[in-house]
Amino acid sequence: MAGKMFTFDPLSIFFLFVIFVVCLPAAVYSIGYMKGEYSNRKTIMAWALFFGFVLSMAFVVIVNNVFAFLIAWEAMSLVSYFLIVLDTKHEKSIRAGMVYIVMTHAGTAFLTAAFLLMYKYAGSFEFPAVKAACQAMPPYIRNILFLLLLTGFGTKAGIVPLHIWLPYAHPQAPSHISSVMSGVMIKTAIYGLARFVIYMLGPGPSWWGISIIVLAVISCLVGIIYALMERDIKRLLAFSSIENIGIILLGMGLGIFFLGRGEPYLAVFSTIAGLYHLVNHAIFKGLLFLCAGSVYKATGTRDIEKLGGLIKKMPETSVYFLIGAMAISALPPLNGFVSEWLTFQAFFLGALNTTGPVKLFLAISAGLLALTGGLAAACFVKAFGVTFL
């Protein structure tokens, strides 16, 4: 593996699949969405930025070198910034772009510190050399690396309290870009956690997993509560992304927790639950953002309180939005239900295999996930009902 520029292991191929399953329909959708919206020159620039965005995300998940990863990561951040501020006629777009670029570079600073620390011990930027060095590091260095990586990738993922850029940036980008940012870009942070924490750092103390679970539960609740209060349909979907990143991180956090306890089967099961919800969220959130773009294109507003009865004028969009809303609300037999059910099973299996305060912690976390599911259903009943009925 050493010396190879790219890696196509199962983790990279999985994320490549997620990238293209969302980006391909978004590209097709953009043909109609941008028609009449921008001048020919701006449309060409938008297409160039879009393809640059897709390529940069692909490079993030296939490079085999820490330095190359950082370059691809920065390229992805810069291209997405230009896509957010594409609509320069609106002051909100410029402000959203500023918040995004400041937050994303703050996150990159933490990642850079982590990668330099890795290089100090590995003497190389190649993934295999870094992984070997991580296994031999003193425990306190591994703990510092974990915190740096969690903060850096957590900023891009939009976990609470590092989420402040997300409800600004996602609504202001063109709808097909919002679809890609929410469906794919924030998931590259999950790839980063899987690659650098699970794969390279390996098993760690229990508090690594517990800290991720705590942040994930907070993100779930804060995200869906803000979504419930939101009138702007794209901001509602953006806050919902924070909730779903929390659900994904519950699976990942449980995986890291069980890995540290020497329970590989539970670790694998929990991680699969998190990654399966990642795929599901990419699909149904991409669909919902594209539907929201169709509503905005047809009506000129994103305020659901000014809408209503669109099911008569936009029946196809109504059906697609309903399917996405049912999936994101975890209603059976749709995919969102399956991945959340697997996450519940991971919590129950964990509780059965632990004792004392940890058992109580896992039970409470499962209960809060159930509360989140109920609030999500209420949120999307409101979103669909007010907009289309």
What does this 3D model show about the protein?
The chain is an all-alpha fold and 389 residues long. It has 16 helices and no strands. It has helices at residues 10-33, 40-62, 66-84, 91-122, 127-136, 139-157, 166-172, 175-183, 188-201, 206-229, 233-260, 264-299, 310-313, 315-328, 335-352, 356-388. The longest helix is centred in the C-terminal third of the chain and has 36 residues, at 264-299. The chain starts with 9 loop residues before the first helix and ends with a helix. The model has no long low-confidence stretch (mean pLDDT 89).
Identify the notable features of this structure and list them briefly:
389 residues; mainly alpha; globular; 81% helix
| Total number of strands | 0
Distance between the termini: 56 Å
Major beta-sheet overview: none
How many helix segments? 16
| Average pLDDT score | 89
Q: SSE order in H/E notation?
A: HHHHHHHHHHHHHHHH
Record the SSE blueprint.
Elements: H1 10-33, H2 40-62, H3 66-84, H4 91-122, H5 127-136, H6 139-157, H7 166-172, H8 175-183, H9 188-201, H10 206-229, H11 233-260, H12 264-299, H13 310-313, H14 315-328, H15 335-352, H16 356-388
Helix pairs in contact: 1-2, 1-8, 1-12, 2-3, 3-4, 4-5, 4-6, 4-7, 5-9, 6-9, 7-8, 7-11, 8-12, 9-11, 10-11, 10-16, 11-12, 11-15, 11-16, 12-14, 12-15, 14-16, 15-16
